[in-house]
Write a structure and sequence with these properties.
There is one protein chain. Helices cover 18% and strands 35% of the residues. By secondary structure, it is α+β, with helices and mostly antiparallel strands. The chain is built from two helices and eight strands, in the order αββββαββββ. It is globular, with a radius of gyration of 17 Å. The longest helix has 15 residues. The protein has one domain: Phage minor tail protein U (Alpha-Beta Plaits).
Length: 158
């Protein structure tokens, strides 16, 4: 059984973010090595593994079709890309991580897998620096995107 389009997209995002490295074979000008640790929905990173990235899927909304007979459905899938940083990282380093994530996404924002575009569009929603509770110590960064995709009615694979 094939993975759902949503799983294919998450896998493509994780794999793309893993390319964020300053060393060969990278040739697109990343400034950090945050791609060394990237996982789908990981929340319990060990301090020694930081910086690290986790990719989280939000609740996907389905838009109503133009007519009742339309078999295609358009979905809006929110994605949060969370960067876990060592406590006390500078704001400049957090912003650089955000910049590298943007650079990775724009390489192919339709998320082509096996020569098939998985998305209709990727929208930039918001981004920012995260602070520890009760202090302004920087502990991470976040990039939120929304991916528009389509499937056939009640079919997550196509």
């Amino acid at each position: 059984m094939a993975d759902s389009k949503e799983q294919q997209l998450i896998t493509a995002i994780v794999n793309r973010l893993k390319t964020i490295r300053t060393t060969a074979p990278n040739t697109i000008g990343y400034q950090t090595n945050i791609g060394a640790q990237v996982e789908d929905s990981e929340t319990n990173w060990d301090e020694k593994d930081l910086p690290a990235i986790s990719v989280f899927q939000g609740t996907t909304e389905t838009q109503e079709p133009g007519n009742d007979r339309d078999q295609l459905r358009i979905h809006l899938m929110p994605i949060m890309i969370k960067v876990f940083l060592k406590a006390g990282t500078s704001a400049a380093n957090a912003r650089t991580a955000i910049s590298d994530i943007f650079r990775a996404i724009r390489q192919d924002d339709l998320w082509t897998v096996a020569n098939v575009e998985q998305a209709m569009e990727t929208r930039q929603k918001r981004h920012g620096i995260e602070y520890a509770p009760d202090s302004f110590e920087i502990v991470g960064a976040q990039v939120e995107i929304e991916i528009m995709l389509f499937t056939h009615k009640f079919n997550s694979e196509s």
